[in-house]
Design brief:
Purple Acid Phosphatase, chain A, domain 2, four-stranded antiparallel sheet, elongated, binds 2-acetamido-2-deoxy-beta-D-glucopyranose
């Protein structure tokens, strides 16, 4: 990849870089190769015969996955070339032997200083053309974790003149504890985030870690525990550690839940969700949207079908009364990497046989899984549930257009070509939702 030579760091090592070649024996968390080093067992044993030199000593720009000279194993000498992101601290480079399980520090390089160490690290601004290319040539991406994400970003950017706000509901960068991936992601979406609000939600890859208060006890955040997400992006939460919030934009109200914290009846989050849905003034925001990362509603992804639940355990049971009472129009989820749309549904029953033009009161909520933004795709169950109207295993995103207070257009587009593959409209009169303000919402009988 192209880069001006003044920004290159050249690292020369007169020693075997055994570390990179050694077989993995140490158990550790994470998918990134360096996470397998048993760093807690590291020893310092500096050796006069080992040395690392870093040059130039002053530099500006960024990080890139390093390339190395191929014959270092034979000669004992090697060079690494890479770029570093602007950092506040000086950098030194360390040389270890002993493989992954017995790391032994044998040499430390001279210090490298950054040209502009006081540059703000937040918000992160564009750093120029070469930064973008790191992702495009794949050199900065470990394990090709999100093969569809560049298409999604590119296709959104092409239509940006017609987009007012973007929601990205969890599993944002898949950094899993590796900050360089956040840098890469924030840059990837910079053309979007510099022009329209980019609203995120919390997913398992931002939040989950055992014994840290997350609802799920997995290790999917790689130890980030939501700190990186809440630092990189602003959201109008009352308490940023709890990633739920309400936001109105034009004719929409969005009630964004945090599926990584308990949402069940009696919890703080449940109260928030009810309050968000109950307080909307539908004269001003007639279109009421619920969002959460994990599928708290309906999905026939094979994983959710295996359990026979077709959802995250305890999702619908906890929330469907609220969706119905407050007449939530649409509920969006991610988490499973595919696209699926339900009929307007309540208690697993379709409450409308219509498929593409909904008129009058929405007698149930339409649930949408839009989880094909980037990461490897996931397949569906063989059995197609009655409530599943459209499902597709491809990369894509959804666009909502409120023409006015009574007309909404929904479009699912593929990331690869930006064309519409699924769509529907909703037409209704004011009174269809005005009947449902605050606590005066009349009950709806399913089965229309
Ligand atoms: C990395 O180095 C090898 C050998 O030195 C070279 O063949 C290869 O093209 C380099 N790759 C990149 C991306 O620069
Ligand atoms: C996570 O662990 C806590 C504490 O053991 C437990 O109360 C909770 O039910 C677990 N969460 C899930 C989703 O299993
Ligand atoms: C997905 O699953 C369906 C059956 O549910 C199967 O027919 C199809 O071949 C699968 N597709 C892929 C790409 O695995
Ligand atoms: C709302 O917009 C739709 C679609 O453009 C249009 O057909 C309809 O006449 C509009 N209704 C009102 C009340 O303006
Ligand atoms: C990205 O889009 C191109 C067409 O623009 C397509 O050929 C390619 O397969 C897409 N990549 C993925 C991973 O879907
Ligand atoms: C909701 O039910 C009413 C009464 O049965 C019906 O007129 C209306 O069309 C239904 N709405 C939708 C979107 O199907």
């Amino acid at each position: 990849m192209a880069a001006s030579s003044s920004k290159l760091v050249r690292l020369l090592a007169c020693f075997l870089l055994i570390l990179l070649a050694a077989a993995s024996t140490a158990a550790g968390h994470g998918v990134q190769p360096l996470s397998r080093i048993a760093i807690h067992r590291a020893r310092v044993a500096l050796e006069a015969s080992a040395a690392v030199w870093a040059s130039p000593e002053l530099l500006g720009s960024k990080y890139q996955f390093a390339n190395y000279s191929s014959d270092y194993g034979k000669s004992g000498k090697g060079a690494l070339k890479f770029l570093l992101i602007n950092q506040r601290q000086d950098f030194s480079f360390a040389l270890f032997t002993g493989g992954l399980s017995n790391p032994t520090l044998v040499a430390v390089s001279n210090k490298i200083a950054f040209a502009n160490p006081k540059a703000p690290v937040y918000p992160r601004l564009a750093q120029g053309k070469s930064w973008n290319e790191a992702e495009r040539d794949g050199s900065n991406e470990y394990s090709n974790y999100q093969p569809g994400s560049l298409n999604t970003t590119d296709t959104l950017i092409k239509d940006l003149d017609n987009i007012d706000i973007v929601f990205h509901i969890g599993d944002i960068s898949y950094a899993n504890g590796y900050i360089s991936q956040w840098d890469q992601f924030t840059q990837q979406v910079e053309e979007i985030t510099s022009r329209v609000p980019y609203m995120i939600a919390s997913g398992n890859h931002e939040r989950d870690w055992p014994n840290t208060g997350s609802f799920y006890n997995g290790t999917d955040s790689g130890g980030e525990c939501g700190v990186l997400a809440e630092t990189m992006y602003y959201t109008p939460t009352e308490n940023r550690a709890n990633y739920w919030y309400s936001t109105d934009y034009g004719m929409f109200r969005f009630c964004v839940a945090d599926s990584e914290h308990d949402w069940r009846e009696g919890t703080e989050q449940y109260k928030f969700i009810e309050n968000c849905l109950a307080t909307v003034d539908r004269k001003k925001q007639p279109w009421l949207i619920f969002m959460a990362h994990r599928v708290l509603g309906y999905s026939s992804d094979f994983f959710y079908a295996q359990s026979g639940l077709f959802q995250e355990p305890m999702g619908r049971e906890s929330l469907q009364k609220l969706w119905q009472k407050y007449r939530v129009d649409l509920a969006f989820y991610g988490h499973v990497h595919n696209y699926e749309r339900t009929c307007p549904v309540y208690e697993k029953q379709c409450v409308s046989s219509e498929k593409s033009h909904y008129t009058g009161t929405m007698n149930g909520t339409i649930h949408l899984v839009v989880g094909g933004g980037g990461s490897h795709l996931s397949n569906f169950s063989v059995e197609v549930p009655e409530w599943s109207v459209y499902r597709e295993m491809d990369y894509g995103f959804v666009k909502l257009t409120a023409f006015n207070y009574s007309s909404l257009l929904y479009e699912y587009k593929r990331s690869s070509d930006g064309k519409v593959y699924d769509s529907f409209t909703v037409h209704r009169e004011y009174r269809d939702v005005l009947a449902c303000v605050k606590d005066s919402c009349p009950p709806i009988t399913p089965g229309a």
